[in-house]
Amino acid sequence: MTIKIHLLLIGFFTFVVTVNPIFAQETLQLTLEESIRYALENSVEAKNAQLEVMIAKATIGEQRAQGLPQINSTLEFTKNLQPPLLILPAEAGDVIGGGGDNGGGGAPGNTPSDITVIPFAVNYQSSLTTTVEQMIFNGSYFVGLRAAKTLRELTDFDREKAQIDVVENVKKAYFTVLVNEERKVLISSNLERLDQLLTETTAMYEAGFAEKLDISRIKVQYNNVKTEFDRINTSIEVSKQLLKVQLGVPLHLEVVLEESLNSMGDDERDFYSLLDAQMLDRVEIGQLEKNMELASLDLKNNQVQYMPNFTAFGTFQRVTGAQDFRNVYQADRWFSTSFVGFRVAIPIFDGLRKSYVIQQNRLQIRQLENVKYNTLQNIQVEEFQAKANLRNSLSALNVQRENRELAMEVFNMTRIKYQEGVGSNFEVVEADAALKEAETNYYSALYDALIAKVDVEKALGILK
Question: What is this structure's pTM?
Answer without folding.
Answer: 0.80
